Automatic annotation (TrEMBL):
Coiled-coil portions: none
Pfam families: 23S_rRNA_IVP (PF05635)
Matches recorded under PANTHER family: FOUR HELIX BUNDLE PROTEIN
Xref: CDD domains: 23S_rRNA_IVP_like
InterPro entries: 23S_rRNA-intervening_sequence (IPR012657), 23S_rRNA_IVS_sf (IPR036583)
Protein name: Four helix bundle protein
Length: 117
């Protein structure tokens, strides 16, 4: 934000930021009984996606960069599983998660592309 670095312009970064925002918007619909489980896990994983993209972009070595992008992609997969559990437990209907689902797919595809470079 203050440094005006190049990663802010990347589609993968923008997608990850939007994914995090949408994840946080859905959290109030999840029961308080999941506060220290699913809710905290979604918060951590969605933030991890963004921060690992950022940190990866700051690395000079391609191997290091890809390591952070791989961690970020792992967090996207973790979010996918969290929302699978949320639907299974009937906390939120799948149709209410379409935007998040699309962002998960988009972010995963973009990160996969970063790993192939």
């Amino acid at each position: 934000m203050f440094l005006n670095l190049n990663h802010y312009k990347l589609d993968v970064y923008k997608s990850a930021r939007e994914l995090r925002f949408e994840c946080h918007k859905i959290l109030p619909k999840i029961p308080d009984s999941e506060r220290f489980n699913l809710i905290d896990q979604i918060r951590r994983a969605s933030t991890s996606v963004v921060l690992n993209i950022t940190e990866g972009c700051s690395r000079k070595s391609e191997i290091e960069r890809k390591r952070y992008f791989e961690i970020s992609r792992g967090s996207v997969i973790e979010l996918d599983s969290c929302f699978d559990i949320i639907i299974e437990c009937d906390y939120v209907k799948s149709e209410d998660l379409q935007k998040i689902g699309n962002l998960i797919k988009t972010t995963f595809i973009l990160l996969s592309g970063m790993l192939k470079k």
